[in-house]
């Protein structure tokens, strides 16, 4: 997977949904992430840390793999798994927070 991402741009789409007695609210964040070129040695070292396992795309942007990212357009928190801007917006729309 990391070899496929190396030197390329990929899209990360993260959805959030809020369901309450008074309704449902949904939103998505769309983020473009570009990786620099990754050598086989870099990939092997990263995989050996165990960090790649159990993660979509075989990387966690908030961990050691953040050095792979040469460009990010969109939501950093969305790439981590919970788009905070969109979550806050839904909570406000639902009247949970002011």
From TrEMBL:
Record-level GO BP terms: nucleotide metabolic process
Keyword Hydrolase in annotation: yes
Single GO MF descriptor: nucleoside triphosphate diphosphatase activity
Signal peptide: none
Transmembrane domains' residue ranges: none
Cofactor requirements of the protein: a divalent metal cation
Keywords from the named record: Hydrolase, Nucleotide metabolism
Superkingdom, natural source: Bacteria
Keyword Hydrolase tagged: yes
Record-given protein name: Maf-like protein
Lineage, top ranks: Bacteria, Pseudomonadati, Pseudomonadota, Gammaproteobacteria, Lysobacterales
């Amino acid at each position: 997977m990391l070899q496929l991402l190396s030197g390329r741009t990929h899209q990360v789409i993260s959805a959030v949904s809020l369901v309450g007695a008074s309704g449902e609210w949904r939103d998505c964040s769309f983020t473009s992430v570009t990786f620099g070129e990754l050598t086989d040695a870099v990939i092997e070292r990263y995989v050996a840390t165990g960090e790649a396992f159990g993660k979509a795309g075989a990387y966690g942007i908030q961990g050691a793999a953040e050095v792979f990212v040469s460009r990010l357009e969109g939501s950093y928190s969305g790439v981590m798994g919970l788009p905070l801007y969109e979550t806050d917006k839904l909570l406000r729309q639902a009247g949970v927070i002011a």
